[in-house]
Amino acid sequence: MSISLDDIAGVILAGGMGRRMGGVDKGLRNFKNAPLALHAMMRLNGQVGDICINANRNIGVYEGFGVEVVCDVQPDYAGPLAGMQAALAHTNLPYLVTVPCDVPMFPLNLVEKLSAPFEKNVGLMLTVASTKGRHHPVFCMMRTELLPNMEEFLRKGGRKIDAWYANIPHEAVEFDDEAAFHNVNTLEELKELEQKS
User: Fold this and answer.
1) Mean pLDDT of the chain, nearest integer
2) Where does Mg(2+) bind (predicted)?
3) Exposure pattern of 106-129 as b/e (b: 16+ CB <10 Å)?
């Protein structure tokens, strides 16, 4: 039986410090005349039943996108795992899909592919996108019952997503288009991607 869209929440992770972009809020940098986070939201729209944005500054601007904004519970910009924790605590749906704000061209069948293994494997807890055998840990789908496990990992000082899910039943899902997962770290990379697409 396939997983219903209404059972899947999505979060756009825009809670970082944007250090490599000079400390600006990366999710609000323009790409093709719209903020990066808005591009991510529009791509995720229709793939999930509910969307929120994880952000730690410019909250009012993100709320202007018309979705709920959740802030990290962890202090000091603890990274994408802290954003995932905030979204897990926020949603009451059984599944959560996470995407970063700085990958404006991720696949339109992302959730469809990430959800498929759950239908065959009842013990599966998490799926992660992969290209050529390389995992993209910020693109994952997880059961929301993983929240206590994640909270314990964060409490112990853990920060890396792949270190967190290493001991959880998970499966990598292969995608063909490696460029679709290219993230933008600098203003130069943002300009480059605009010219290419």
Assistant:
1) 92
2) 102
3) bbeebbeebbbbbeeeeebbbbbb
DSSP state of 73: S
> Over 80: is that where the pLDDT of 72 sits?
yes
132 carries a ligand binding annotation: no
Look up the CATH number of domain 5-196. 3.90.550.10
Residue 72 annotated as lining a ligand binding site: yes
- 88 is known to lie in a ligand binding site: no
Residue 38 in marked binding region: no
Banded pLDDT at 110 (limits 50, 70, 90): very high
13 a known binding residue?
yes
Backbone φ and ψ for 45, nearest 5 degrees, come out as -60, 130
User: Is 7 marked within a binding site?
Assistant: no
